[in-house]
Design brief:
single chain; alpha+beta; seven-stranded mixed sheet; 13 helices; 26 strands; 27% helix
C-alpha cells in the first residue's frame, strides 16, 4: 500500500505541478535581439549558500537602432559588473529582475555584441502558492531551474540559447545539467563539470553528493541522480528510465535534448509540488522513489513534457501542454500493460499506482456536492470549462481537466482516426512547431485532418469547445428471423446531443458479436441480424466514449 500522506500529496499535483509554470513564458513578447550562445562559469559554495557566476552572452540584433539591452536575472542575485568584449564597463539600470544595459552606440539588425555579466547571490524565496524553491544552494543539494533565472538571459520569448556551462562544486559532488557532459575533472580540491548545450534552451542544473548512473540510450545521455538509497536502487530506476526513453524516442522519432536526467529533490524544498519537467531534467520528491516499485504514470507524464510543454509551448495552455504530456504517458501504459488494462486505467485510474487522472476523476471533479472528494483526497469541487479556451487565471482547473477529460479525449480521437494517422500527426506537429510557442489547438486539429483525411472540426468543437459529456439509455427487443435473430432497438441521449460512434456488444454464453453505430440525434434506432438470440447487450463495453454512467453520479 502507498502511504495515505503520499496519495494526498500526489493529488495536490493536479493543481501544483511546477511543470505547469515552467512551460509558460514569463517574459514579454517581441524580442529585438537574441542570444545565440551563452557561456557561463558557475561556482557553488554550499556552506555559505552562495552561487557565483560569470556569463558571456553572444547577442544578435533583430531590429535596428538599439541602445538599451534588456537582460533578465533573478532579483536576489547581485550584479557585480557588466562589460563588453573589450572589458569596457557598461552602465545599466536595474528594476527587480530586469537589467537595462546601455550600449554606447546603436546596435543594428544582424549586428553581434558580446556582453559579460558577473554576479553572485543566495536564493531564499519560494513560489507562494506551492512553497516551492525554484533555486537553492545548500550543503545537501544545490539546484536551479530554468524559470528561476539563475543566469542572465535575454528578455522575451526567444530567451533560450545554445552554449556551455562550467560548474565548480565540492570534490565529492556530482552535477547534472541541461546539455551533454563534455568533461569532468578534479582541480584544486574541487570538481569541475563542463556541459555543452546544442539546443536553444534555458538551462537547469542540480548538484549534490548523488548516488548516480549515466548511460547512453540510443544517442541520448540519460542519468538517474538519487539522494537516498544504494546503487541497486539507482540501477532499478535507470533500467526503467531506459525503457521509457526508448519507447518515446521510437514513437516520436527523436529525443529533443542532448540528455535526460531523473533527479531527486528534498520534500522541504519542493513544498507541496511533487516534481516538474524542464529542459532535459525532471525533478521528483523522495516519496516517488519507492523501493522496487516504479510509478510509471508519474515518470511517464513528466517525460511526456519533454515534447509537450518544453519542446513545444502552446499559447492554448494546458489542453496541449498538459493534455498531450498525459496522453504520452497513456501510450506508454498501453505499451507496457496492454490495451485491456490501459482502458481500465483510462476510465478509472488507480490511486495506489499514482494514476488519479482519468475519466472517473473528471466526473468526480465536476459533480462533487461538498468541498472535498472522499475518493480523491485533496480534490476540490471544480467548475467544468471548455478545454480549448485558455484562461490564464483559471490555469489550475484547466490543468486538472486537461489531465483527466483531455487525457480521455485524445484517445477517443485516436480511436476515431486510427493509431497510425494519430502518430503521424503528432510527429508532423513536433517537427513543424519544435522550439516554438505558436501551436494552437486549431493548428493541431489541422495536422490530424491532414493525416487522417477526415474533417475533424465537429470533433474538436464538441469535445474541446464545450463543457459536459453525453449520457445514453438503450432499449431493444429480439425476434426470430429464420435461423437468425433480429435485434431492434433505440438509443436515446438524455443530456445534450453528441456525435459518437459506439460499439454495441451482444452476448449469449460464450458467443460474442460486436456492431458499430453512429449516433447524432436525440434518438437513434438500430436493427441488426445476429446468429444467436442475445441475453445481454452492452453499450460501449470497453468505455471508449467519455460519458455519464451511474457509478460516476
Amino acid at each position: 500500500m502507498v502511504p495515505r500522506i503520499f496519495l494526498y500529496f500526489c493529488v495536490l499535483l493536479l493543481f501544483a505541478n511546477p511543470a505547469i509554470c515552467a512551460n509558460e513564458s514569463v517574459n514579454p513578447p517581441g524580442n529585438e535581439l537574441h542570444a545565440v550562445y551563452t557561456e557561463a562559469e558557475i561556482r557553488i559554495d554550499p556552506d555559505h549558500n552562495l552561487l557565483k557566476g560569470n556569463a558571456i552572452l553572444k547577442l544578435i540584433g533583430l531590429s535596428s537602432g538599439l541602445k538599451d539591452i534588456p537582460i533578465i536575472l533573478n532579483h536576489e542575485l547581485k550584479v557585480l559588473s557588466v562589460t563588453d568584449n573589450n572589458g569596457q564597463v557598461l552602465p545599466y539600470e536595474r528594476i527587480e529582475k530586469t537589467i537595462h544595459v546601455h550600449f554606447p552606440t546603436d546596435f543594428y539588425n544582424n549586428d553581434t555584441l558580446i556582453l559579460k555579466v558577473s554576479y553572485e547571490g543566495i536564493f531564499t524565496e519560494r513560489v507562494p502558492e506551492l512553497s516551492f524553491m525554484e533555486a537553492f544552494i545548500g550543503p545537501k543539494i544545490s539546484y536551479a531551474l530554468d524559470r528561476s533565472h539563475w543566469y542572465p538571459i535575454v528578455s522575451g520569448t526567444n530567451s533560450g540559447s545554445k552554449g556551455k556551462i562550467i560548474y565548480h562544486v565540492p570534490i565529492n559532488w556530482i552535477v547534472t545539467s541541461s546539455g551533454r557532459l563534455a568533461q569532468e575533472q578534479l582541480s584544486d580540491n574541487e570538481k569541475q563539470f563542463v556541459f555543452e548545450i546544442n539546443d536553444p534552451v534555458q538551462y537547469s542544473f542540480a548538484a549534490a553528493p548523488f548516488k548516480y548512473l549515466r548511460k547512453n540510450i540510443d544517442g541520448t545521455e540519460a542519468g538517474v541522480f538519487l539522494l537516498n538509497g544504494d546503487m541497486k536502487k539507482v540501477k532499478f530506476y535507470m533500467d526503467n528510465c531506459e525503457k521509457i526513453v526508448s519507447f518515446f524516442k521510437e514513437y516520436y522519432g527523436f529525443f529533443p535534448y542532448d540528455g535526460y536526467s531523473i533527479v531527486e529533490i528534498p520534500q522541504d524544498l519542493l513544498g507541496i509540488a511533487g516534481g516538474g519537467s524542464y529542459s532535459g531534467l525532471t525533478f521528483y520528491i523522495p516519496g516517488i522513489f519507492a523501493e522496487n516499485v516504479f510509478f510509471t504514470p508519474t515518470f511517464g507524464h513528466e517525460l511526456g513534457h519533454i515534447w509537450w510543454g518544453n519542446l513545444i509551448q502552446s499559447p492554448d495552455g494546458p489542453v496541449i501542454n498538459e493534455g498531450l504530456a498525459q496522453m504520452s504517458m497513456g501510450l506508454y501504459l498501453e505499451h507496457v500493460f496492454g490495451e485491456k488494462v490501459f482502458r481500465s486505467l483510462l476510465k478509472n485510474g488507480d490511486l495506489e499506482f499514482q494514476l488519479w487522472q482519468s475519466g472517473r476523476l473528471y466526473f468526480q471533479y465536476v459533480s462533487q456536492t461538498n468541498n472535498h472528494s472522499q475518493e480523491y483526497p485533496g480534490i476540490f469541487r471544480g467548475a467544468d470549462m471548455e478545454l480549448g479556451i485558455n484562461i490564464p487565471e483559471k490555469h489550475q482547473p484547466l490543468h486538472t481537466l486537461a489531465n483527466s477529460k483531455g487525457f480521455f479525449i485524445y484517445f477517443m480521437l485516436r480511436d476515431y482516426i486510427g493509431k497510425e494517422a494519430f502518430r503521424e500527426a503528432l510527429r508532423n506537429t513536433l517537427n513543424k512547431y519544435a522550439w516554438s510557442n505558436t501551436l494552437t489547438l486549431r493548428l493541431l486539429q489541422r495536422e490530424f485532418e491532414n493525416t487522417s483525411g477526415k474533417n475533424l472540426k465537429w470533433f474538436f468543437d464538441q469535445w474541446f469547445f464545450r463543457t459536459g459529456a453525453p449520457e445514453f439509455s438503450i432499449n431493444y427487443k429480439t425476434n426470430a428471423s429464420g435461423t437468425n435473430y433480429k435485434v431492434k432497438g433505440s438509443i436515446r441521449q438524455t443530456r445534450e446531443l453528441y456525435r459518437v460512434n459506439p460499439e454495441i456488444l451482444f452476448i449469449k454464453g460464450e458467443s460474442r458479436e460486436i456492431r458499430n453505430l453512429e449516433i447524432k440525434a436525440r434518438k437513434t434506432s438500430f436493427s441488426f441480424i445476429l446468429p444467436f438470440q442475445p441475453d445481454t447487450l452492452l453499450f460501449d463495453p470497453e468505455y471508449k466514449i467519455l460519458r455519464w454512467i451511474n457509478e460516476f453520479k
